[in-house]
């Protein structure tokens, strides 16, 4: 029930509230802490990196990312999965699937991955990320020394045969426009840091290969 007008606190007109900064002026000054990247690496006994898993829907990106996360947890390493579908329920829930919105989706995920790398974590992204230019943007944002592009190169026929979410069925029926691999292109990496085909590997074998990659590159002991 609203208060009588005589008891309500008078509110100043909008024009009376001063602006905190002149229009167009960004007063943003970064602050640096004293806990350096080297200190975090020493604490966690790992070097941060982002494994950017790219491939068609149904290729096995999320399954592989979460299996790798679990394996590393058992070995005593700190990691985190940034799954594309999960992020579209939260951080990116305001984005659609236009070309511009897909690029913004990739930019946001890359920025989050970079922050998690700054915290010392191993990060695994699981996104279709069909455009080479968007993946190049992600590499630039995260940093060359912390970015490994992993092409989950499972063929379209295998991905469509799996169709775990029924997306290919809906896309073939015209219910999902601009679906990657069916009505929209997927630009496969021309020279990925690593390529893995889950059509010919068990989950254990695929996970073992990525663990070996992390060890060979010096990100885990």
Automatic annotation (TrEMBL):
Keywords for the protein's UniProt record, in alphabetical order: ATP-binding, Kinase, Nucleotide-binding, Phosphoprotein, Transferase
Query: Which positions bind ATP?
Result: 55-62
State one molecular function term (GO).
adenylylsulfate kinase activity
According to the UniProt entry, what is the EC number of this protein?
2.7.1.25
- Write out the catalysed reaction: adenosine 5'-phosphosulfate + ATP = 3'-phosphoadenylyl sulfate + ADP + H(+)
Pfam families reported for this sequence:
APS_kinase
Catalytic residues in the record: 129
Pathway(s) it belongs to: Sulfur metabolism; hydrogen sulfide biosynthesis; sulfite from sulfate: step 2/3
Cite the SUPFAM superfamilies for this sequence.
Answer: P-loop containing nucleoside triphosphate hydrolases
Q: Do the record's keywords include Cell membrane? A: no
Membership in a protein family: Belongs to the APS kinase family.
Which protein is depicted?
Answer: Adenylyl-sulfate kinase
